[in-house]
C-alpha cells in the first residue's frame, strides 16, 4: 500500500508514504539536500541519521550530532519559554509548524494544556485580528470569487493526494469577533492543529479560506491587507462560490470530510443543508458547539442528580452557535421523552432584540426556535419582547448559556436572579475568545455563593472561593469535532448524520461521568483531548453504520476505542529514503 503525501503539481511525486517488507512505514522522496529541510513533511532537522544524510545529500547541512525527537521538543519548548507575549508565542509555535509538522505536534502533545491557549482560543483570535500585519508564511488554500471557474486547477496544485479532513471558513463570523477577512484562514489552521493533536495525520489535512471579500472597512483600507478588497459577495454570488468549491473538492478528494467553520448565522445553516449530501460535512459552530453544550448539560445534570428534561434553558445569542445549541438540547430532551412542543417550550432563545417569539420579525432559521405566544402570555415584561433578565425570571431558568459574543452580558443582576431560582444553576459562557466571554467564572461563582456549575468556551484558571477550589471546564467544540472527523474517516462515512453528531455528545457526557463526575466537572481536562476523541470516534463510527452511511471497520471489535487509538496518527519521525 502506498499513500501519496505530496507531489509537484502534475509531476513526479515528491514524497510518498511506503511500507517496507515488515510493514513499517517510511517516506520515499525525490527531494534532495536543502529542499528536504524546507518541506514541513520531510524536515526532520538534526534527527536525520548518518545514512539518511549521506543518501539524501544532507551532509554538512545539519549539526553533526544526531538528535532525537524528544531533544527537539526540549529545544523547541525552551525557545517557547523565551517568548514574552501571547501573540509572540503563537507565532513562534506556528513557525515550528511551518518547519515540521512532527516536531510541532510532538511539542503540542508534550505540553497540550499549556500550549493550546496559544495555538487555539484565546490567542488565535488576536493572531487573526493582526494576521496581515504579522504572518509571513502562507499556509492553506485561499479561493476567491475570481477563481470560481478555476477551482479544480487550484485544488490540483495542492501538494497532497490523500486529503481526508478539510476545514473551510469564509471568515464572516470568526469566533465571537465577527468578519475578519483574509486573517480568518487562521481559524482553519488552528482547528486542524487540534485534529493533529487528536490523531489525524497533518499531511492529510487542508485549511481553506473562501475569500468572498470583507465588510470591515478598516481591513479594506489597510495597506497591509492581503485579502480581496471588496465588499462581501452575498446571496446567489456567495452561494455560487460555495457550490463551485464543494463540487471541485468532492471531485479531487471524494473521501474527505469537510468541516465548515465560522460562517455567519443564516449562511452557516443554508450551506450546511445545501451540501450535507454533496460530501460528508458538518458545521462546527452549529453542530459541534451544539453537541458540546448538550454533553456539558448532561454531565452537570447527572452530577446534581437531575434530568435534562426538567431544566429550563435560556440561550443568549441566536447565531450559528445559539441555534445549534438550542437544537441539540431539544434533541436531548426528546430523547428523554419530551414531545417536540414540550422541548421547544423549555429552550428559550434570545437574539439581539430579545426572546424569539412566533410572529416577530426574524430570519427564517430562527422561526422553529421561537416560543408560542400563549406560553408567555402571563409574563410580566416591559417591552414588546422579553429581554434577558425578564426571560431568566419569567421563564424560571435553571440554565443560562451564552453564545452572543457580548462580553459581560451575564451581569450580577441576571446571575443572581438565576441563582435565586434553583439550588445549582448551570452557567455556560461559551463565546470566544476570553474578551467576548459573557461572564467571568470567578464572578458567577461569587454571585451564587459557589453554587453555580460553570464552564466557558475559552480556558480560564481555577477559582478559589470560600476555601474551595473550582476547576472551570472548557466547553469547547474541540472535544467533539476531531472525534467526529476520526469516526467518519475510519468508517468511511459518506455523510455526517444528525444522529452521529448527537452520539458524539453522549459519548463525551459519558466519558465525563465515568471519569470526572466526582469533581463536579462538566468537561474533561483538555489534556485528555486525544483520549476523549477516541471515545467520541468509536461512537460516531457505530452510529454511521447504524444509519447506513458507513462501514464497521475490520478489527474494530471487540474494543473500538482501542482500535481508534491504534489507528490514530502520532507524531514521530519516519525513516526517509531516496525514491
Ligand atoms: O474556535 C473555538 O474556540 C470554538 C468555536 O468554534 C467558536 O467560538 O467559533
Ligand atoms: Mg467556530
From TrEMBL:
Q: Which residues form the Malic enzyme N-terminal domain?
A: 97-276
Residues that coordinate or bind (S)-malate: 432, 476
Q: Where is the active site?
A: 120, 191
Q: Name one GO molecular function term.
A: malic enzyme activity
The free-text note explaining how the cofactor binds reads: Divalent metal cations. Prefers magnesium or manganese.
Q: Which family does it belong to?
A: Belongs to the malic enzymes family.
Residue ranges of domain Malic enzyme NAD-binding in the record: 286-545
Annotated a divalent metal cation binding sites: 261-262, 285
Query: Which Pfam families does the UniProt entry name for this protein?
Result: malic, Malic_M
Return the PANTHER family for the record.
Answer: MALIC ENZYME-RELATED, NAD-DEPENDENT MALIC ENZYME, MITOCHONDRIAL
Q: Name one GO biological process term.
A: malate metabolic process
Q: Which InterPro entries match?
A: Aminoacid_DH-like_N_sf, Malic_enzyme_CS, Malic_N_dom, Malic_N_dom_sf, Malic_NAD-bd, Malic_OxRdtase, NAD(P)-bd_dom_sf
What's in the keyword line of the UniProt record? Metal-binding, NAD, Oxidoreductase
Spell out the SUPFAM superfamilies in the cross-references.
Aminoacid dehydrogenase-like, N-terminal domain (SSF53223), NAD(P)-binding Rossmann-fold domains (SSF51735)
Alphabetized SMART domains for the sequence: malic, Malic_M
Q: What is this protein called?
A: NAD-dependent malic enzyme
**Obligatory cofactor(s):** Mn(2+); Mg(2+)
What organism is this sequence from? Sandaracinus amylolyticus
Amino acid at each position: 500500500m502506498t499513500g501519496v503525501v505530496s507531489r509537484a503539481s502534475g509531476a513526479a511525486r515528491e514524497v510518498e508514504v511506503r511500507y517496507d517488507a515488515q510493514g513499517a512505514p517510511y517516506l520515499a522522496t525525490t527531494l534532495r539536500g536543502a529542499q528536504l529541510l524546507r518541506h514541513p513533511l520531510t524536515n526532520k532537522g538534526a534527527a536525520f541519521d548518518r545514512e539518511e544524510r549521506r543518501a539524501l545529500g544532507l551532509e554538512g547541512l545539519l549539526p553533526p550530532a544526531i538528535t532525537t525527537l524528544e531533544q527537539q521538543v526540549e529545544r523547541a519548548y525552551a525557545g517557547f519559554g523565551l517568548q514574552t507575549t501571547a501573540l509572540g508565542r503563537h507565532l513562534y509555535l506556528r513557525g515550528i509548524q511551518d518547519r515540521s509538522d512532527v516536531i510541532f505536534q510532538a511539542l503540542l502533545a508534550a505540553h497540550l494544556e499549556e500550549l493550546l491557549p496559544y495555538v487555539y482560543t484565546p490567542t488565535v483570535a488576536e493572531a487573526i485580528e493582526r494576521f496581515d500585519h504579522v504572518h509571513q508564511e502562507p499556509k492553506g488554500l485561499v479561493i476567491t470569487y475570481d477563481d470560481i471557474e478555476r477551482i479544480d486547477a487550484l485544488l490540483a496544485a495542492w501538494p497532497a493526494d490523500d486529503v481526508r479532513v478539510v476545514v473551510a471558513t469564509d471568515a464572516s463570523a470568526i469566533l465571537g469577533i465577527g468578519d475578519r477577512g483574509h486573517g480568518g484562514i487562521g481559524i482553519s489552521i488552528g482547528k486542524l492543529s487540534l485534529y493533529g493533536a487528536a490523531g489525524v495525520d497533518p499531511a492529510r489535512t487542508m485549511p481553506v479560506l473562501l475569500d468572498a471579500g470583507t465588510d470591515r472597512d478598516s481591513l479594506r483600507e489597510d495597506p497591509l491587507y492581503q485579502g480581496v478588497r471588496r465588499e462581501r459577495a452575498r446571496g446567489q454570488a456567495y452561494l455560487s462560490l460555495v457550490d463551485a468549491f464543494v463540487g471541485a473538492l468532492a471531485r479531487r478528494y471524494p473521501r474527505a470530510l469537510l468541516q465548515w467553520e465560522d460562517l455567519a448565522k443564516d449562511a452557516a445553516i443554508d450551506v450546511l443543508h445545501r451540501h450535507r449530501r454533496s460530501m460528508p460535512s458538518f458545521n462546527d459552530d452549529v453542530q459541534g458547539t451544539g453537541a458540546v453544550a448538550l454533553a456539558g448539560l448532561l454531565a452537570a445534570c447527572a452530577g446534581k442528580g437531575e434530568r435534562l428534561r426538567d431544566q429550563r434553558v435560556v440561550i443568549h445569542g441566536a447565531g450559528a452557535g445559539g441555534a445549534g445549541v438550542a437544537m441539540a438540547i431539544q434533541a436531548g430532551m426528546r430523547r428523554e421523552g419530551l414531545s417536540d412542543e414540550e422541548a421547544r417550550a423549555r429552550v428559550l432563545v434570545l437574539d439581539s432584540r430579545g426572546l424569539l417569539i412566533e410572529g416577530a420579525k426574524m430570519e427564517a432559521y430562527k422561526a422553529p426556535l421561537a416560543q408560542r405566544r400563549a406560553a408567555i402570555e402571563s409574563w410580566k415584561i416591559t417591552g414588546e419582547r422579553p429581554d434577558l433578565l425578564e426571560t431568566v425570571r419569567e421563564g424560571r431558568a435553571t440554565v443560562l448559556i451564552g453564545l452572543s459574543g457580548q462580553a459581560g452580558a451575564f451581569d450580577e443582576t441576571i446571575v443572581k436572579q438565576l441563582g435565586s431560582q434553583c439550588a445549582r444553576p448551570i452557567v455556560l459562557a461559551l463565546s470566544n475568545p476570553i474578551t467576548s466571554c459573557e461572564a467571568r467564572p470567578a464572578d458567577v461563582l461569587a454571585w451564587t455563593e459557589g453554587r453555580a456549575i460553570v464552564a466557558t468556551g475559552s480556558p480560564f484558571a481555577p477559582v478559589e472561593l470560600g476555601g474551595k477550589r473550582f476547576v472551570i471546564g472548557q466547553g469547547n467544540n474541540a472535544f467533539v469535532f476531531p472525534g467526529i472527523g476520526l469516526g467518519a474517516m475510519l468508517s468511511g462515512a459518506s455523510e455526517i448524520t444528525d444522529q452521529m453528531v448527537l452520539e458524539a455528545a453522549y459519548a463525551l457526557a459519558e466519558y465525563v461521568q465515568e471519569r470526572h463526575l466526582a469533581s463536579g466537572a462538566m468537561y474533561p481536562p483538555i489534556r485528555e483531548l486525544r483520549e476523549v476523541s477516541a471515545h467520541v470516534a468509536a461512537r460516531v463510527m457505530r452510529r454511521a453504520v447504524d444509519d447506513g452511511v458507513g462501514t464497521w471497520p475490520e478489527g474494530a471489535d471487540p474494543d473500538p476505542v482501542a482500535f481508534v487509538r491504534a489507528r490514530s496518527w502520532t507524531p514521530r519521525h519516519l525513516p526517509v529514503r531516496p525514491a
